[in-house]
Amino acid sequence: MSFTFIQKFVTESTRFPYTSAFVLAFITVAAAAVRFRRLSKPTSFTMSSSSVNDPVQRNRIFSSKLYFDVPRSKVPIIYSESYDISFLGIEKLHPFDSSKWGRVCRFLVSFGVLDKKCIVEPLEASKDDLLVVHSESYLNSLKESSNVATIIEVPPVGLFPNCLVQQKVLHPFRKQVGGTILSAKLAKERGWAINVGGGFHHCSAEKGGGFCAYADISLCIHFALVRLNISRVMIIDLDAHQGNGHETDFAYDSRVYILDMYNPGIYPLDYEARNYINQKVEVKSGTLTEDYLQKLDEALEVAGRSFDPELIVYNAGTDILDGDPLGRLKISPDGITLRDEKVFRFAREKNIPIVMLTSGGYMKSSARVIADSIVNLSKKCLIEDKQGS
Questions:
Q1: Most buried among 142, 203, 284, 364, using CB within 10 Å?
Q2: What is the tens place of the pLDDT at every residue in 190-222?
Q3: Neighbouring C-beta atoms of residue 348, cutoff 10 Å
Q4: Which of 160, 174, 163, 180 is nearest to 91 (CA)?
Q5: What is the DSSP string of 39-81?
Q6: Residue 25, number of CB atoms within 10 A of its CB
Q7: pTM of the entire predicted model
Q8: 142 near 207, Cβ under 8 Å?
Q9: More confident: 99 or 13
């Protein structure tokens, strides 16, 4: 039912006062019906699943070069120097640390837990790859620098030629998308994979925002459903912000279960997308480490009883860190390490392949926190290569 129809109905009713009560009742029932439809995930696959059943989309997925064989000498940690964004210093106008990804890897190398030669470098997602989820019109909108500037929340970017914006901003994002997509294949083969990047959970098929231009999580899942012979995926989104992008994309797809633990008082405030979350855990500004971890324990227990996934996509944003200006939570660095350990242990105990994405984090200290957490996962043998070298 369109808003225009309702508006016309209400306008007409003012000419007949005795019908106003009927109109009000009609609108109330209609609104309830719409809300019920949004809250329900039907048993038959619709919307996002239809794209995977489309022969054109399946052909795109099978023709993609993003899934390639990785030698056993490599570890399932994915990164490219192309991830890092450097754009004449303009990138510093956004609070996100756009050199975070490289610093995470440098920490891991300096700690002696990672050999630089063992890092997996992904390919850049092509237009055909992106069309698996995104529309042609959305991708064309990114050819306007002003649109990209709005998405990444850096207005001066809109003043630059789009060829430069593609090279300096969108190319790094597309490279990270390639990493996220490949990580599912590696996780299925090795038990786990970490893309030191990605996690653009505010971007949906038709809309970018919040420093997220491409829907890498949705793309990763669509590729996995077709190429990896799986039918159930769980998203565990523990970034401080609501993952409204993937929630919109999988609103009516019962193959995807979403556990989202987020601060409800901050961006994106997408109330419609919240209707599509299977398991919503709200943590208000100022939440401390102990309370946060207790809520996480309870949430994982419920998720484990509610859904039996064949792949977990873990969006591990560090903007929950105490002092983060956007996340507004008060989780200690050790708390983040323990959070990641709990999620990986959840996956390991159930023998479910897990993909980790680093997502948001708006403090310079985030890179070290991520690296320390990965070191802990290694020490606890939660990221061992299940088949050996």
A1: 203
A2: 999 999 999 999 999 999 999 999 999 999 999
A3: 19
A4: 160
A5: H---SS--THHHHHHSHHHHHHHHH-SSS----TTS-SEE--G
A6: 10
A7: 0.87
A8: no
A9: 99
The CA-atom distances, in angstroms, between 146 and each of 93, 134, 141, 157, 236 are 16, 19, 9, 7, 32
Q: Is the pLDDT of residue 13 over 90?
A: no
224 vs 296: CA distance, rounded Å: 26
pLDDT tens column, 83-110: 998 776 665 655 667 789 999 999 999 9
The catalytically annotated residue of 94, 134, 201, 202 is 202
Structure tokens at 328: 């507004």
Report CA torsion sign: 374, 380, 383, 385. positive
Residue type, 39: L
Average pLDDT over residues 256-261: 98
Cα–Cα nearest to 149, from 198, 211, 224: 211
Helix axes 366-379, 333-349, angle to 10 degrees: 40
